[in-house]
Amino acid sequence: MPEVTREAHKDGDFFVNYEEKVFEDVKADAGEKALVTFHTVAFEGSIGLVNILNAIRLNRKGYETSILLYGPGVTLGIQRGFPTLGDEAFPGHQNFAVNLKKFMAEGGKVYACRFALQALYGHGEPSLLPGIVPIAPQDVLDCILLHKKADAVILDTWTV
C-alpha cells in the first residue's frame, strides 16, 4: 500500500487560485435588463439557489433584473418554516426566502404565476413572500417576450 506523505488539509487551505479572473468584470450599460426564469422545484437541486445568486449578481452589475417564477418555480417564493413560518427547521431551510428578500431589497423584481401557485401547488397569493408580485398565467410569456424585445440577458432555468 502506498504511504501518504502529505500533510492533511486544514481550515484556511485552498485547492485552486480563486483570485485569478479570466474574463473582464462586465457591468450593465444604462437601461440594460436581465431576466432569470425558474421552472424548478425548491430543494430538488442547487439551480434554484444558484440562479437566485446569479440574479443578485446581475442586479449588482447594474442590470434592471427580474425573476420569473412559474410552474414548479413558484415553490421558491412561498413562505415556509417549521414549526412556524419563518423558522429554519434545518440549516439552509430559508435560503430561498433569505436571498429573494435580499434581491428585492436591492431593487430586483420577482413575479410568480398565479396558475402554478393555486392550480399546481395549492397555495394562494398570501403564501408568497412579501414583495413578490403575482401575475396571470398569460403574463408569463409576455414577461419573457418583453425582456426579449428589450434585448435583455435571459437565463432560463428548467429542471424536470
Automatic annotation (TrEMBL):
It comes from the Bacteria. InterPro entries: DsrEFH-like, MSMEG0572. This is MSMEG_0572 family nitrogen starvation response protein. It comes from Pseudooceanicola albus.
